[in-house]
Amino acid sequence: MQIGPDKVVTMHYTVKNDSGEVLDRSDKNEPISYLHGAGGIVPGLESALEGKVTGDRVSVSVPAAQAYGERDPALVQQVPRRAFGGTPKLEPGMRFQAQSDHGARTVTVVRVQGDMVTIDGNHPLAGQNLNFDVEIAGVREASSEELTHGHVHGPGGHHHHD
Ligand code: ZN
Questions:
Q1: Ion ligand 1 nearby residues (CB, 5 A)
Q2: CA distances to 3, 74, 82, 115, 127 from 120, in Å
Q3: What is the whole-number distance in angstroms between the Cα of residue 114 and the centre of ligand 1?
Q4: Distance, CA 122 to ligand 1 centroid (Å)?
Q5: Burial class, 129, CB count within 10 angstroms (exposed 0-12 / middle 13-18 / buried 19+)
Q6: If you average pLDDT over residues 66-79, what whole number do you get?
Q7: What is the 3-state secondary structure (H, E, C) of 26-61?
Q8: Is the pLDDT of residue 162 over 70?
Q9: Would the pTM count as exceeding 0.85?
Q10: What is the pLDDT, as a whole number, of residue 143?
């Protein structure tokens, strides 16, 4: 069965930046699953997997614009330290949920200087080309329930608790 719209794809993957540093990889015994065409993985990878079958290995370099997008300098802002309330020790690299005009967003502390804290609301992988090595472990039809929900159920996918 070929990968295409409304298929559930199970895969092992490793993703590296342009310096060859591993950014993320699936657990060897626990491949991830996604619903093809539902925006569950970055667009550049999704289109590269179109038409592949179980057992195929795919190496693809996805430019930033087809991954998590380019960095937006406007998302780097200075805020007063008191905005972090009771957090005792603010350090670069710490991440927080912040409320913005566009809903909740994760921000990363990039610098702490006196009473001012510089935060970055870009996705940590924004502006980076992502180099994927993928091995397709399985392809199946999505259930009608999965199509309604827009995500995969069961192993490697979404678990409902209700
Ligand atoms: Zn669901």
A1: 149, 158
A2: 36, 9, 17, 17, 13
A3: 46
A4: 28
A5: middle
A6: 94
A7: CECCECEEEECCCCCCCHHHHHHHCCCCCCCEEEEE
A8: no
A9: no
A10: 95
Residue 118 confidence (pLDDT): 96
Ligand 1 center to 116 CA (angstroms): 42
Furthest-apart CA atoms within the chain: distance in Å? 59
Nearest of 44, 51, 43, 56 to residue 12 by alpha carbon: 56
Fold of 7-68+126-149: Chitinase A; domain 3 (3.10.50)
Q: Which CATH architecture has domain 73-120?
A: Beta Barrel (2.40)
Q: Where are the domains of the chain?
A: 7-68+126-149, 73-120
> What are the tens digits of pLDDT across the range 114-143?
899 999 999 889 999 999 999 999 999 999
